[in-house]
Amino acid sequence: MASQTQNEPDDDCMDEFMDKFTTQKYKGGFNEKTWEEEFEKVPMFMKKPPEDIDPVKNPELACLQSIIFSDDTPLEEQATTYKNEGNDYFKEKKYKKAIASYSEGLKKKCGDTDLNAVLHTNRAAAQFHLGNFRSALNDALAAKKLKPDHLKAIIRGALCLVELKKYSEAISWCDEGLRADPKEKKLLELRLQADQLRRTWERDARKSKLKEKKKQCEKAALLKAIKDRKIKLFAPAKPRRRSSDDEEDEEGVSGALAELSLDGISSENATGASVFLDESGSMNWPVLFLYPEYGQTDFISAFHEGARFLDHITVMFGEELPRWDTERKYNPQDLQLYFEDEEREEVYQVNPEHTLLEVLKHDRYFIKAGTANFIILVKGSSFCKDFLSDKKVHRLKRTT
């Protein structure tokens, strides 16, 4: 009779072990109410692994992972595993993790061309959902290079090109895909969309070009009108390239008209106002009236060059005086109009009968920041006397 080895289970012991369950319940089994959750914790039966596998807390999972991604496992199998992992993340809309998995699969550089094309295409889809259209396009290009007739890669690339507003290229991609499958619905729809967007973009580009051309013509006419009237614009000094006298003159005028600025004096109605030529060829200027005694302003966005100052003053201080005039002294007949020559520290008194053009043509008048400025004071007031006390005052004569 052969002797029983030390490691072989004893029949009597096994019988005794099994007999115990006739009188007592096995305590190591699954709970009948929670067996599904407990079953899911068994590594071999998990539907999906934890996101981070800690070898200390989950030694069984770490072991399985090392087996799956062992250097002994064929590269195609490893790449396929990463692809499937990425697909699971993609379904859960975890696009960054999906990209990481597809990237790991591509790093394996396996010899399966179709598999690598799928990894690129799937990564392109994940990048697309994150709004990384250029990265997605690069993956679509890589996939198409590996497999020229890969429709998913072509569709994904065309979608990226539409998002990047490269409509003609998107149409070319669609045409390429339709040569392989003329009935591919997605490509047919995408081509139609890209063609409509291209037509809209081209139409808008033509409109924008015509608008810019019109703007340049109006600017040229405006510059000519300013020069013809010998109106002088003051532009802040700034470095610029050497050019001919005519080019320098045009640059100075253009710079002064480029943007309206009130030089620190605010007026909510002044925003966006600039000089323009009306249909009759007359110039209309933005004009700012300053009341230094009260720190107030009035702004006229379109003061016709042929209009008299008296006409505007009568309207501004006609039937009702402004609220800030607490002493009720800003009556039209008591007001005096001036402009200041800052370079010489002199002021010129303007006759209210003057037109705007008569004043703008004066040798010592300079328009700053595209806006004409005038000071209004009350004749004989103490503030008027103090304001003019340290300045040389000239009376502007009419040139009519």
Automatic annotation (TrEMBL):
GO molecular function: Hsp70 protein binding; Hsp90 protein binding
InterPro entries: Csn1/TTC4_wheel, TPR-like_helical_dom_sf, TPR_rpt
BP GO annotations: protein folding
Keyword tags: Repeat, TPR repeat
Keyword Repeat in annotation: yes
Residues covered by the Cns1/TTC4 wheel domain: 278-387
Transmembrane portions of the chain: none
Record's keyword annotation contains Disulfide bond: no
SMART domains reported in the protein's UniProt record: TPR
Any one cellular-component term (Gene Ontology): nucleus
Pfam families: Wheel (PF18972)
Protein family per UniProt: Belongs to the TTC4 family.
Protein name, per record: Tetratricopeptide repeat protein 4 isoform X1
Gene name in the database record: Ttc4
